[in-house]
Specification:
The protein has one domain. The radius of gyration is 20 Å and the shape is globular. By secondary structure, it is mostly helical.
Length: 366
Amino acid sequence: MSAFQQIIEGIFTPVLIVFCLSFLGLLIGKIKIGNICIGLAGVLGISLLLGGVSKDIFPKWDDSYMKDFDFLSSLGTAIFLSVIGLSAGNAFLNKKEKRHEKAFVCGFFVVFLGALIAILIAYMDPTLPEDLLLGLFAGSMTSTPALSAAKELYGEGSAVAVGYGMAYWIGVLSIVLFVQTVRLTTCDISLQKEPFQKATETSADPLLLVFGSGLLGLLFANVLHISSTVGLLLCGFVIGWALKKQKKKIVNLEPYKNLGLTLFLVGIGFPVGARMTFEIAWFYMFYGLFISLVSVGVGYCMIRYLFHFSKRESLAILCGGMTSTPAIGALQQRDRGVDLSLYSVSYAGATIALQICVRLIDLVVL
């Protein structure tokens, strides 16, 4: 080992690397080209890039060290899913209209569109490994829960994470570009009051709710031997719904959701970048692009014209159906009055559908 490498390894401790990747990725995500920015997807990009050169810079790192990043990924996922469950439960069942129930169903349909395309691709290309296909599907739908479910089926050493890393960028760019190019008129961006704008107080500190929900969700999953993803989402949803019944609104959860997603992207991106040194058929990325484009394009038309939502509402629901935080952030920059409750409920429907579809794809293409 050269003296330079010893100095580098002495300075760049694992914790420092996590903060470095998060900071640089978030900065890159804020860079705008026109009115378009990639948001949190920048964290995955820089993590993949630096992960790819990590073995040259840090030769003493081995697979056992990379397992530390698996823990970081699991922690970020748990925080992220707890927030999603709380948000969806607290926004569900608005008695004024049936919009939330319809948005929940739309989230289901967007995901099933992607799953149908993934199954079609599997039959068109029998040489495509099943674990890589599930990773491409999860990445195309920008879904952390789908990745977690697929990893539970195939394990940490599978190509699931590699497929996810390849397709996630494509999925993010597809939905972000779409929501920023659909033209919104003055009629779409109305001044009507939205539920999330009302100032209400929560019955507990948001941080306490996130970790309390995570604790109960993981205990529930371990006791019943079910997926941790299902346990976290279900407990978060029930807690959020119970607070909603008491007319309590949970506020300020967005920073915790972004924190969880950032930790997840670093935890999954860095080791995936290191594993992507072996030869991969890069045309597999076009499969991810096909899944994303169909889900976004056909999904939007279905939401807009079959369920009769406005453009503004359709885009928020589509962001939820694609489980895309960067996309809803881009939409909020265009329209501060976007109804986040529709996004949260659609996200919940999509997340449940993703759990079903991951197992469905695995069964069909087996």
